[in-house]
Amino acid sequence: MSADRLDVVIFGATGFTGNCAVEKSVEFLSKVKWGIAGRNQSKLEGVRERIGTKVSKDLSEIPIIIADVGDEESLKKMAEQAKVVVNCCGPYRHFGEAVVKACIAAGTHHVDVSGEPQYMERMQLEYDEAAREAGVYVVSACGFDSIPADLGTLFHERHFEGVVNSVETYLVAKSTGPGASLHYGTWESAIYGLAHANELRSLRSKLFKERLPSMKPSLKNRPIFHRAPVVRNAVCLPFLGSDRSVVMRSQRFLFETQKKRPVQVRTYMSVGTYFTALLFILAGAIFSLFTRFSLGRRLLLDYPKLFSFGFASHEGPSEEKMKNTKFTMWFQGAGWPEALAEGEDQYADPPTKKLVTKVSGTDFGYGNTAACILLCATTILKEHSKMPGKGGVLAPGAAFGKTSLIDELNKNDVFTFEVVSAKEDSQN
Q: How crowded is residue 282: how many other Cβ atoms within 10 Å of its Cβ?
């Protein structure tokens, strides 16, 4: 890789997430060479000027690269000018593959903030071998989807002091102030993701030729409505985002490459009262129904505020709204203090040890998601020798598990990883 390349190029810099990434770059890319890319010169210049004024810093010397997802040659030229491309141009289902291909062809690492399982798993199926041959790391889900869940599970294992059998995650998210909480791009990704969810079964049958070994005792699904000790005074529901699929990709990778016992994972979310839970289920059912038909999808896309009850908009959340948005993800784990000889070996007794950890943060959907993906990019630059193999299409936990990324996220107040409590129960 040529030394005269920029260290990091932010592609899609004029979009909502791209704007956040440019602003965070002033802090997180201050010690590296970086640039911005997109298809419109004047808009890129506007982003550079606007963000520079906002942070009181002259960004006029930050390079601009013109690249369009519809122009393969322009993407390749962009990738050839970077060591790592930070891809903020979604929905990735529509626009991600072309950038991945260009990066592999140019020998350039690629990170994005996708929360779309079909896209991520298809990229692994179709491009993992090519990425490894090119010495390129392609890592998706490098933001709120799904760094807290994936690295949070590894953090939980690291502090368990034994062998983890299962982890249940509980997401508690709170936002105050008027206005939408989601940008239209996130809403659009969710629509297409759910509309094509039936593709996953066929995709996974090709990607994962063999099932993971069946671990005992098996972790059962909780009832649709339930309460959990780690989330007080709240009703919990299954969380249907990409977290579990991302975590299990990392767990599978660690089992296949290190013979580590795979952790069983279930993901849930807190929604407050039973009445709120019922409304959430009703809204989810309507959303799911509409995504099945082209007319329904068109209505959802054309009227995001109406069908999201004001939760999503083209404008996205205001800065005040983002600053007043916070989350805690609780990890409730069980296992044993002693390890067996092999990752597939089974314990004769039920788990005797428990641990609770958590990951928390503010402005997690966009601002700190942008900070997180930039830290992922600089981690590849600085610590690629600690990453597995020479490259590949990987989930964050598989890619960054042996690096200092968790410590950097903690140190920079992006996401905070903490141990809450541990307990051994000889009677369990």
A: 10
* Residue 245: DSSP 8-state: H
The C-alpha R_g of the chain, in whole angstroms, comes to 21
Q: Which amino acid is at 144?
A: F
Amino acid at 369: T
Main-chain phi, psi angles of 218, to 5 degrees? -75, 145
Q: Shortest CA distance to 376 belongs to which of 398, 394, 396, 402?
A: 396
Instruction: Report angle CA 264, 112, 40 to the nearest 5 degrees.
Output: 160
What's the count of helices (H) and strands (E) in the chain, helices before strands? Answer: 16, 16
- DSSP E strand boundaries for 122-259: 137-139, 163-175, 182-183, 226-228, 231-238
Closest CA to 120 of 246, 19, 20, 220: 246
Distance in angstroms (rounded) separating the CA atoms of residues 110 and 116: 16
Residue linked to tokens 């107040």? 413
pTM across the whole model: 0.95
pLDDT tens-digit profile, the chain (428 residues): 767 899 999 999 999 999 999 999 999 999 999 999 999 999 999 999 999 999 999 999 999 999 999 999 999 999 999 999 999 999 999 999 999 999 999 999 999 999 999 999 999 999 999 999 999 999 999 999 999 999 999 999 999 999 999 999 999 999 888 888 999 999 999 999 999 888 999 999 999 999 998 899 999 999 999 999 999 889 999 999 999 999 999 999 999 999 999 999 999 999 989 999 999 999 999 999 999 999 999 999 999 999 998 999 999 999 999 999 999 999 999 999 998 877 778 898 999 999 999 999 999 999 999 999 999 999 999 999 999 999 999 999 999 999 999 999 999 999 999 999 877 664 43
Beta strands in 337-375 (DSSP E): 353-362
Contact 418, 360 (CB under 8 A): yes
